[in-house]
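2024-03-11 09:14:02 INFO worker-7 job=invfold-0412 stage=load source=structure_tokens
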């Protein structure tokens, strides 16, 4: 179960002008903050226009629990934004940030900025079933940040921005800090910039991409004792 779950059940329900400030999620079995947006693709306002998705998180933090942030199933015509500014995700069993089924729609951007990811997914959890929204290839270890295309999607995925993040990974496990994994279709329009990665294992400085086109600028990695 998520700490805060944005999951509308009916087309006329809306997620507009929502801002969470200085909110903390602690030890939730699912995600600290999550969203499943399949039912928003037909959501219309009174004048017949689509209603936007607008979620803004300011200095929100997640400690312990299943995973950190989990957003999925953005339909093609959905527009708006998810913006996470500041805050810390720490000590979750799985990834700190997971996104899947996010269609490449420039009118719907997911943006993480000035966020700290502190020693997540350190227990060696292995992905073994990509059809159940696992966010890494079968048999590999969960990574701190994961973008994944579920099998059977009908279009490319993209429009994700990761800027000015700090990743702390003190585990001896070997896994990349970021995985961007395509499947039937590719990840495109993913921008990664101004990232500071602090790792115990030098191999964890890597980024793993499969069927993905991403822009990477100014990623700095240092080894810690």
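2024-03-11 09:14:09 INFO worker-7 stage=emit residues=225
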């Amino acid at each position: 179960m998520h700490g805060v779950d944005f999951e509308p059940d009916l087309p006329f329900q809306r997620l507009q002008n929502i801002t969470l400030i200085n909110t903390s999620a602690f030890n939730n079995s699912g995600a600290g903050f999550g969203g499943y947006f399949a039912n928003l693709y037909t959501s219309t306002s009174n004048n017949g226009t689509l209603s936007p998705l607008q979620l803004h998180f300011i200095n929100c933090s997640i400690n312990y629990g299943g995973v950190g942030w989990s957003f999925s199933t953005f339909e093609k015509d959905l527009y708006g934004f998810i913006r996470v500014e500041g805050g810390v995700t720490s000590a979750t069993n799985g990834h700190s940030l997971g996104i899947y089924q996010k269609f490449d729609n420039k009118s719907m951007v997911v943006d993480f900025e000035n966020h700290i990811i502190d020693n997540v997914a350190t227990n060696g959890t292995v992905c073994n079933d990509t059809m159940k929204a696992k966010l890494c290839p079968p048999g590999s270890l969960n990574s701190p940040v994961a973008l994944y295309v579920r099998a059977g999607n009908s279009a490319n995925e993209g429009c994700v921005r990761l800027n000015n993040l700090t990743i702390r990974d003190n585990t001896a496990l070997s896994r990349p800090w970021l995985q961007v994994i395509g499947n039937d279709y590719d990840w495109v329009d993913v921008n990664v910039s101004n990232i500071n990665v602090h790792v115990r294992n030098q191999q964890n400085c890597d980024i793993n991409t499969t069927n993905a086109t991403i822009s990477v600028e100014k990623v700095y990695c240092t080894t810690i004792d």
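2024-03-11 09:14:09 INFO worker-7 stage=report msg="The longest strand covers residues 187-199."
2024-03-11 09:14:10 INFO worker-7 job finished
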